[in-house]
Amino acid sequence: MAATVYMEFEKPIAELEKKIEELRSLGASEMSTEIDALQSCVETKRQEIFNNLSRWQKAQVARHINRPFTLDYIQHLFTDFNELHGDRNFGDDHAIVGGLARFDGQPVMVVGHQKGRDTKEKVFRNFGMPNPEGYRKALRLFQMAEQFNLPIITFVDTPGAYPGIGAEERGQAEAIARNLREMASLTVPIIVCITGEGGSGGALAIAVGNRVLMLEHSVYAVISPEGCAAILWSDGTKGQQAAEALKPAAQDIIELGVIDEIVHEPVGGAHRDHEATTQAMGSAIRRHLAELKEMTPEQLVEDRYQKFRAMTRMAE
Amino acid sequence: MSWFKRDKTGIEKSNTKHVKVPEGLWTKCPGCSESLLTQEIEENLQVCPKCGHHYRIAPRKRLQSILDNGTWQEFDAELTSVDFLDFKDTKSYQERINTTVAKGGSRDAVICVEGSIKEIATQIAIFDFAFMGGSMGSVVGEKITRSIERGLEKKQPVIVISASGGARMQESILSLMQMAKTSAALAKLKAAGLPFISILTDPTTGGVTASFAMLGDLNIAEPKALIGFAGPRVIEQTIRQKLPAGFQRSEYLLDHGMVDMIVSRLEMRDTLGQVLAMLTRQ
């Protein structure tokens, strides 16, 4: 992985680590106790910061450039991945990847948003913002999974569906809506993993699952904090306040019954240890998949229906 | 310098002959710029008699124009939104709910009724844009889902008449989930072979478009309605370009294959009567 990218609130850690680096470069052996002391200081500090992240800070962690993306999960958790391209209508959207793969040896369909790390790849992946053909490709793969009785595992990490002229002309709204309706009636198990940014309808369009798992520092909301701030405060820079109001953290959302489990991240965030993060996610997927495999196709559809049917807070 | 001296009295403004025009008597039509008697527009279902411009219309007035005898039975009117997130921007959500409810009219942004259109009993959910921009929170999603479920139970067609800015931000993730909930109910309606007609009126955007509003067996738009996923301003800011003329209007969507037809409000009842009869094989 490339050099560590620190977030604004990690400044104290960055300074300490820089100091350690300097001491190391001196190469003096008598410094080793001091280095050890500093190192443990860093660990305590990191623990302290990451145990107390604000919602706005979590949004930064969720968007971290080195956070594991769908293809990282596929590389760590799946074998025999064969990527399948295209929606058979218009094109192949690079902001959504998917294909056949084996999970613990068992064939499954895996689909997820894909972001890029360097500028070129970011542009290629359209910053993880799908066009309608991306959602239509996802639906084609979901329906193929149903045809061949394969469980579906999705990874959700997008700022949102792309707001562009072409996207509107080709029916962005229709593509998302159709996915919501069709996912509701699929007769195979669906496990959804929110791994980074759960950006509104663009996220939900591949997130109607029997089980929804969410990484500890991920966010999931109806709008981005910046977008919300621009509308309600008429000031796009009030993202921090909007993040607090929207309550998009995994810890907020589990209270509302929208997700089933929070998957813990290594201290310092998922980007610090892809292996540990993906394995933690993998073991959660394994557990839920085993439960879902006990259900009949009818039970799976009804289970999913009742899950979303219950998502209501109101006064009667 | 007597040339410059005024030796006649100037034109004087008369103070006496002013006719007081009551506020709102006349309306200048944004469609054809004609000045029209407001009453004339109102009597024509808020459609300009000269150019056919569609003004927004109150939901109950619209129901009267669609349903047999202008009558219906309302359901779930008592459901009220709650501020379960303690959401606060410039005002708290609870305050917004209270003041909007206090204004009279609806208790939330959708009204759900059962009524007949040309003798075909139908479940209808109609948005009230005046209630927080017709935004969809738990109550709206729940009421629409119940309408669909009533349709299933009574084997009746379902119509949703949308006018909405999208999901209600003050309910954050749960407003998003209403998209999945309503769409899942529509999957059941579809499997049961019952018709679902989506009528899109000005404006229909965001999460409402990206769920049930685009899932009609028939998607019917009113003329020149703004219909889209992302708002025009968001798109302009993203692509840094001016949007083409007529972008996201009904006619543009018809051109791009997203709606089945554009129907004038004055013809809506007849059109619905015809297609419902055929879809229910009567």
Automatic annotation (TrEMBL), chain A:
GO MF entries: acetyl-CoA carboxylase activity; ATP binding; carboxyl- or carbamoyltransferase activity
Reaction it catalyzes: N(6)-carboxybiotinyl-L-lysyl-[protein] + acetyl-CoA = N(6)-biotinyl-L-lysyl-[protein] + malonyl-CoA
Entry keywords, A to Z: ATP-binding, Cytoplasm, Fatty acid biosynthesis, Fatty acid metabolism, Lipid biosynthesis, Lipid metabolism, Nucleotide-binding, Transferase
Subcellular location: Cytoplasm
SUPFAM superfamilies xrefs: ClpP/crotonase
InterPro entries: Acetyl_CoA_COase_a_su, ClpP/crotonase-like_dom_sf, COA_CT_C
Record's keyword annotation contains ATP-binding: yes
PROSITE patterns reported for this sequence: COA_CT_CTER
Residues annotated as transmembrane: none
Gene Ontology CC annotations of this record: acetyl-CoA carboxylase complex
Single GO biological process annotation from the record: fatty acid biosynthetic process
Enzyme class at the top of the EC tree: transferase
EC number(s) stated in the UniProt entry for this protein: 2.1.3.15
Pathway: Lipid metabolism; malonyl-CoA biosynthesis; malonyl-CoA from acetyl-CoA: step 1/1
Segment forming the signal sequence: none
Main location: cytoplasm
Location of the CoA carboxyltransferase C-terminal domain: 15-291
Function: Component of the acetyl coenzyme A carboxylase (ACC) complex. First, biotin carboxylase catalyzes the carboxylation of biotin on its carrier protein (BCCP) and then the CO(2) group is transferred by the carboxyltransferase to acetyl-CoA to form malonyl-CoA.
Similarity annotation: Belongs to the AccA family.
Quaternary structure, from the entry: Acetyl-CoA carboxylase is a heterohexamer composed of biotin carboxyl carrier protein (AccB), biotin carboxylase (AccC) and two subunits each of ACCase subunit alpha (AccA) and ACCase subunit beta (AccD).
NCBIfam families the UniProt entry points to: accA, AccA_sub, PRK05724.1
Name assigned to this protein: Acetyl-coenzyme A carboxylase carboxyl transferase subunit alpha
Organism in which the protein naturally occurs: Trichlorobacter thiogenes
Protein's gene: accA
UniProtKB/TrEMBL annotation, chain B:
Domain named CoA carboxyltransferase N-terminal: residues: 25-282
Location(s), subcellular: Cytoplasm
GO molecular function, one term: ATP binding
Keyword field: ATP-binding, Cytoplasm, Fatty acid biosynthesis, Fatty acid metabolism, Lipid biosynthesis, Lipid metabolism, Metal-binding, Nucleotide-binding, Transferase, Zinc, Zinc-finger
GO biological process: fatty acid biosynthetic process; malonyl-CoA biosynthetic process
Note describing how the cofactor binds: Binds 1 zinc ion per subunit.
Broad EC category: transferase
Residues the entry annotates as binding Zn(2+): 29, 32, 48, 51
NCBIfam families: accD (TIGR00515)
Similarity section: Belongs to the AccD/PCCB family.
Quaternary structure and partners: Acetyl-CoA carboxylase is a heterohexamer composed of biotin carboxyl carrier protein (AccB), biotin carboxylase (AccC) and two subunits each of ACCase subunit alpha (AccA) and ACCase subunit beta (AccD).
Name by which UniProt lists this protein: Acetyl-coenzyme A carboxylase carboxyl transferase subunit beta
